[in-house]
Each structure stands twice: as C-alpha cells, then as structure tokens.
UniProtKB/TrEMBL annotation, chain A:
InterPro entries: Complex_I_Subunit_2, NADH_UbQ_OxRdtase_chain2, ND/Mrp_TM. The gene is nad2. Core subunit of the mitochondrial membrane respiratory chain NADH dehydrogenase (Complex I) that is believed to belong to the minimal assembly required for catalysis. Complex I functions in the transfer of electrons from NADH to the respiratory chain. The immediate electron acceptor for the enzyme is believed to be ubiquinone. Core subunit of the mitochondrial membrane respiratory chain NADH dehydrogenase (Complex I) which catalyzes electron transfer from NADH through the respiratory chain, using ubiquinone as an electron acceptor. Essential for the catalytic activity and assembly of complex I. GO terms for molecular function: NADH dehydrogenase (ubiquinone) activity. Its EC number is 7.1.1.2. It is found in: Mitochondrion inner membrane. It comes from Bombyx mori. This is NADH-ubiquinone oxidoreductase chain 2.
TrEMBL record, chain B:
One of its GO terms (cellular component) is mitochondrion. Coiled coil: none annotated. It comes from Bombyx mori. Residues 106-278 form the NADH:ubiquinone oxidoreductase intermediate-associated protein domain. GO terms for biological process: mitochondrial electron transport, NADH to ubiquinone; mitochondrial respiratory chain complex I assembly. This is NADH:ubiquinone oxidoreductase intermediate-associated protein 30 domain-containing protein.
Length: 334, 307
C-alpha cells in the first residue's frame, strides 16, 4: 500500500472528529464534528483505481451532506424559536431524522446497502461501526421518544425483510446492520452505558465476521460454496453468524438479553414481540447460508486450495471468544 | 514579434472551431439540439444527453401517450405481480454450476430479435452503411448488412462505417430501468457462424453518473468463415475498457452487477457485406479461470493525468 500514511492521517482525523462531535457543548460543535467526519471519511473510501468506489464515495458524500444540511438548519431553527415550545416536537423529529439519515437507519436507509456494496471490507467495517457513534450519541441528546420507537420498528422490519433476497454478503451485513441499529436506538434511549455495551459487542462480532471475509476475499455467497474451506473456518463462520443473530450461548446473545430485560421493565411488550420476531427472520437467513456451506458441498475441486496457515490462530481465537464470552462475562461479578 | 504571431494563430484556431459550430448541416431535423462534431476538441467531460445528442424520441401527442400507457398497464401489472412473487419466494440464484451455460438470449424465434436494436451510421446521415437483424434460413439470428466507409461530403464527419446491434435496456415493471446481474459468472459464451470478419463485442456498464455513461468493455471476436459453427468462450478478464471508442489508460474491473447492454458491432474498415449468424449468447462460470486482467498495464509518468 503506497499511501498508508495518507490513510493514517485521515483515520486520525476521523477518530478526532467523532470525539469533537460528542464532546462539544454546543449544537454547532456537533455539526462541525459531523462535517469533519464526512470530509475525512471520503478520502478513505474513494480509491481511484476502482470506478465503483469513486461512484460510491460520491453517493456517500451527497447523502451525508444532505443530512448535515438538514441538521444544521434544524439547529438554527431551534435557536431562533427557542421560546416557542410548541415547535419542540417538530424540531426534535427533524433533528432525529437527519441524524438517522446519517446513520443509515430506516426509513432513510436506501443509500446504505448501495454504498456498502461498493466498498471494500475494511471500509465497510469503518462505516458500520465507527460512523454510527457520533449520530447515536447526538441522537441521545435530544430525542423524541414516540418518533424513535416508530423508527425502531421500521428498522427492525426493514433490516430483517430486506436481507432475505440477497446474494451479496456485503448487502446482507448491511441489512443486518440496519436491524442492529434498531436495537442500538432502543438501548441509547435507556442509557448511554447500555448502548456502549451493545455497541462494543456488536463491533467485536462484526469485526470477526469482516476479518474472516476479508482474509478469504469473499464478497458473494457463491464464493462461500465454491471454496474448499477448512472445517475450522466453516465452524468459525457458523459461530460468528449465530452470534450475530443473537443465539445463546454465543457472545451476541448477551447484549440482546439485557435489552429485552429493559424492554420488559419498561413494559414495551408489543415492541419486544417485534424484536423477537425480526430476530428470528434474521437467524433464518444466516442459517440458510451456514447450512448451505456446511452440508451442500457443491463440488470439491482439487486445484482450489484455501491456504490459511498464517491466519488460523486469529480465527481460532475469535471462535473461542465468541463461544466463551458469555461464561467469561460472569467473571465480572466475582 | 513571435509572441504576437502565436497569439494570432491561437485566436484563429478558436475562430475556426467556432465557425464549424455555426456551420449548418444538410439534415437539420436529425441534429437540432446538439450537433455531433468530430473536428473540434471536446472541452468538457460533462455529458448533457445520455444518447450523445442524437435526437431519437418519437413525437407523439399526450392523448396517444395515454392510450399507449393504458394498453401496457395490464402487462406491467403482471410483471409487477411476478416480481412480488419472486420476492416472496426468497430463492435467489446463489451459484452457477461450472460447465453449465446459462443462456441470456437463444435466437430460435423471431420474438427474441425484438430485444435488440440495430444502428448504423446512415441512421443520422453520417454514412452509407446499412444493417439488419432478422432470422436466417437456418432458423437463427442473422446480423447482416453492408459496411461502407465513404464519408458524407458535408464536412461534419471525419470517418464513417459502423453497424451495430445492441440489446435494449433491461426493464423491471413499469418501465423502471434495471441492470443485468452477472456476478456469478466469469465467461461469456457465444455460438456464432461468422464470415471471417472481426466483430466487436461490447458490454456496456452505464453507471449512475454521466462520467460512466459511455463506458463500454470491448473484445474483438475474430470469426471463422466456414460453414461450421464456432463456440467462443471469452472470459471477462479479456475485455478492455473504452469510453466513446477510446481505450482508457486506466483500466478497471467490470462491474458485473451494473451491466446494462450487450452488443455486437462491425467496424473493421473493410468495405463490403457482412453476415454474422448467432445461435445463442450465454454466460458460464469457469472455476479454473483465475486471470484478473489479460493485458499488461504500465506504470506511467506522473504528468499523465488520470492514471
């Protein structure tokens, strides 16, 4: 990689911009952080050697700047109409909408699978994890409860139903990310600590999945079936997918369990039902991928040999963490 | 003194280019909005029209539009219902088995020919070639015509002589434009019976922005003239990227999920008849093929832009 130092520079600014956004004491500071975030992310994703990534970065720029403009305008309206409390509802809805668009949450999610399809795995990882932090926290500063509950429901439904007909792994993870956004929005309504907990575990799971796909250079589902995958790689795939779906005893079950706990404490019974049902749909399409790669051995070709000698330790470690983290997390109570 | 001279020369050059702009062509009704000029330099990358300025709309009144629309409504609703059923089935094609050719078009009936459009340079008064796509006596599609490299004498065109056939845009229900999705495959298979001439296979991947509207991947198919059919299996790595006919210095991978058109053209500068009989055009997945790009790329100097 020739321009590694460029990437490090922009990555540093990316991290810094999120910190600016969440630690500012004025809405303008938040907006500035979001803008710098956008400006520093664009050079990371636009790779001039690939036409698709250039188009993707342009689309990303357009959608995010639109959301930023919306956000800034709503901030200004809020400042000017501060004394008129009748407008609070509308302004909070508009501000929340612009931040939801920044995150790629439904019903403003149409750009998200499209852009995720055009990025490489590492850029996708940044988009799905780090880019969600500042809009999430800004959302928690001024949210409209009823509006957000409605958004959670749309997120869950679109995330689960959208991923059903996908053949591209990136789009699949994009819809899974939209679904997980629903969980995250609810958790941030409860408390920031809870959100942080969910977010960290989600990032860990996504990082394991993405590193596996990155190492094997897999972007489409047919690549899962063609490669002569080692048994341990298949097992890792199984564990990670089920963990992402929230199945016990894997790591992904823990945050979902705690959120369901808080849902029931706050008497959101219907919402709990929707959370459960959409989780089931998501696990359905994960299992569809897993059993195909495990059981339907399409063809074993002698000249395709997946050499994973150097990276086996990482894969084994990630599987171990996914399985045992539920048990290990009980050690915090010791 | 010399400085003055160069200034005069450059201004004359610009004047000349502007005077060509003002020159009127014989066939005004074809090119009213934006005349195609090959003598001048292009100053912009920006494309105003998707079709390059050629006015190809058929003028109909609003009432006729409505009537045509109503006739098509039933068909479109059926297509929409079919799409919903596909969505409900949730069973997309996950894998392309090696050794199997998935046909895109099998030219065994005249209805398939309606999915293609033929163009040649005489359509807009830019030449004298003619071409036709019809069923051959053997029951297959025959793309034939006469290629003429004579240049019309009204000074707009420098070179002439091309005939092409291209598939129509893929449409979803209600005429929404969609693309082919070829990510499962890595080889294009054609069964043709040529006449010994070289034909150009064009895969067009029009993107969303105007910069990529003219991106076409080319491959020269050399046909044998004999009475025997030839099956040409061309991996996608052999295709070369060109934009408006000019091969690009910076070659990029084909975007398999954004393929919009497939076409075959004849433009080998040989005056005479051409005949190309096509039986099918299909796709295959060849797992043994691991070439990424067939042609060598060179490291260029830093002053060469866009590479």
């Amino acid at each position: 990689m020739n321009n590694n130092s460029n990437k490090m520079f922009f990555l540093f600014i990316l991290f810094f911009s999120t910190l600016i956004s969440i630690s500012s004491n004025s809405w303008f500071g938040c907006w500035i952080g979001l803008e710098i975030n956008l400006l520093s992310f664009i050079p990371l994703i636009s790779n001039s050697k690939n036409l698709l990534s250039v188009e993707t970065s342009l689309k990303y720029f357009l959608t995010q700047s639109l959301a930023s403009i919306n956000f800034l305008f709503m901030i200004l309206i809020k400042f000017s109409l501060l004394k008129n409390f009748n407008m609070n509802n509308i302004i909070s809805i508009m501000m929340n909408s612009s931040l939801l668009m920044k995150m790629g949450s439904a019903p403003f999610h149409f750009w998200f699978p499209n852009i995720v399809e055009g990025l490489s795995w590492m850029n996708n990882f940044m988009l799905m994890t780090w880019q969600k932090i500042s809009p999430m926290i800004l959302l928690s500063y001024y949210f409209n409860k009823n509006f957000l509950i409605f958004m959670i429901i749309t997120n869950l439904i679109i995330g689960s139903l959208g991923g059903l007909n996908q053949t591209s792994l990136r789009k699949l993870l994009a819809f899974s990310s939209i679904n997980n956004l629903g969980w995250m929005i609810f958790s941030i309504m409860i408390s920031e600590n809870l959100w942080l907990f969910y977010f960290l575990i989600y990032s860990m799971m996504i990082s394991m999945m993405i590193s596996l796909f990155f190492l094997m250079n897999m972007y489409f589902m047919n690549q899962l079936f063609i490669n002569n995958m080692n048994f341990f790689i298949k097992l890792n795939l199984l564990i990670n997918f089920l963990s992402l779906g929230g199945l016990p005893p894997f790591m992904g079950f823990m945050p979902k369990w705690i959120i369901i706990n808080f849902l029931l404490i706050n008497k959101f019974y219907f919402l709990t039902f929707i959370f459960m049902m959409t989780s089931l749909i998501i696990i359905y399409y994960y299992i569809r991928i897993i059993y195909s790669s495990f059981m339907f051995n399409y063809f074993k070709m002698k000249w395709v040999n997946l050499l994973m000698k150097n990276n086996m330790s990482l894969i084994n470690l990630s599987s171990f963490i996914s399985i045992s983290s539920m048990i290990l997390s009980t050690f915090i109570f010791m | 003194m010399s400085l003055l001279k160069t200034n005069v020369i450059t201004s004359v050059k610009y004047l000349r280019s502007f005077s060509v702009l003002c020159r009127k062509s014989n066939q005004d009704h074809h090119l009213k909005k934006c005349p195609i000029l090959f003598n001048t330099q292009r100053w912009l990358f920006w494309e105003r029209h998707r079709k390059g300025g050629y006015d190809t709309t058929i003028k109909t009144s609003n009432w006729e539009h409505l009537k045509n629309g109503l006739v098509e409504l039933k068909h479109e609703l059926k297509l929409f219902a079919k799409e919903l059923k596909e969505l409900y089935d949730m069973d997309p094609l996950l894998i392309a088995r090696p050794g199997e050719i998935d046909l895109l078009w099998c030219f065994n009936s005249p209805t398939v020919l309606e999915k293609f459009v033929t163009t040649c340079d005489s359509d807009h008064g830019e030449g004298y070639s003619s071409c036709n796509l019809e069923m051959s006596p053997a029951g297959r599609a025959l793309f034939h015509g006469y290629l003429d490299t004579r240049v019309p004498k009204d000074g707009r065109i420098k070179k002439a002589g091309y005939c092409a056939m291209r598939s129509k845009m893929q449409r979803k229900s209600f005429k929404r434009a969609s693309t082919f999705d070829w990510h499962l495959y890595n080889t294009l298979v054609l069964k043709v019976r040529g006449d010994g001439r070289a034909y150009l296979l064009n895969i067009s991947t029009e993107g969303y922005y105007d910069i990529t509207w003219n991106d076409i991947y080319h491959y020269i198919l050399y046909t044998r003239g004999g009475p025997y059919w030839q099956v040409a299996k061309i991996p996608f790595s052999k295709f070369v990227l060109g934009s408006k006919g000019r091969l690009q210095d910076k070659q990029t991978r084909m975007r398999f999920d954004k393929v919009t058109h497939f076409g075959i053209s004849c433009g080998d500068k040989i005056v005479g008849k051409f005949n190309l009989e096509i039986e099918y055009v299909g796709l295959e997945f060849d797992p043994t093929h691991d070439e990424e790009f067939a042609y060598e790329m060179y490291k260029t100097d830093k002053y060469i832009v866009a590479v």
